[in-house]
Design brief:
This protein has about 120 residues and is mainly alpha-helical. It has one domain: Large-conductance mechanosensitive channel, MscL, domain 1 (Non-ribosomal Peptide Synthetase Peptidyl Carrier Protein, Chain A). The chain contains four helices and two strands. The longest helix has about 35 residues.
Length: about 120
């Protein structure tokens, strides 16, 4: 059972997933800092210095922080857009690489196979 677990844990897919999660978390911190420290202060200036996170009202003893909710929605939208742009750029770069890769014609592949078979038969 230990060998099976070791085989599973060391598979490429599991390691790739672990690396992706770690890089994603680090990228999330970068984007969160971008949103909180750069973009939202500028948005606040454009909107007359409004700080969404401090908007709230009280009902009895409960404090309803709807501003924090609005801030979270804006953070999500900006983060989602940022990730969309990164993926879009990555896909565009990947398509360019695929377009530059030489394509092999099926006829050429068949001719090579025939050539190799003829060499083997001699």
């Amino acid at each position: 059972m230990l060998q099976e677990f070791k085989k599973f844990a060391l598979k490429g897919n599991v390691l790739d997933l672990a690396v992706a999660v770690i890089i994603g978390a680090a990228f999330g911190k970068i984007v969160t800092s971008l949103v909180a420290d750069i973009i939202m202060p500028l948005v606040g200036l454009l909107m007359g210095g409004i700080n969404f996170s401090k908007l709230s009202f009280t009902v009895g003893n409960a404090v309803v922080k709807y501003g924090a909710f609005i801030q979270s929605i804006l953070d999500f939208l900006i983060i989602a857009f940022s990730i969309f742009m990164v993926v879009r750029i990555f896909n565009r770069y990947k398509k360019k690489e695929e377009a530059q890769a030489p394509t092999v014609d099926n006829k050429e592949v068949l001719l090579k196979e025939i050539r190799d078979l003829l060499k083997e038969s001699k």
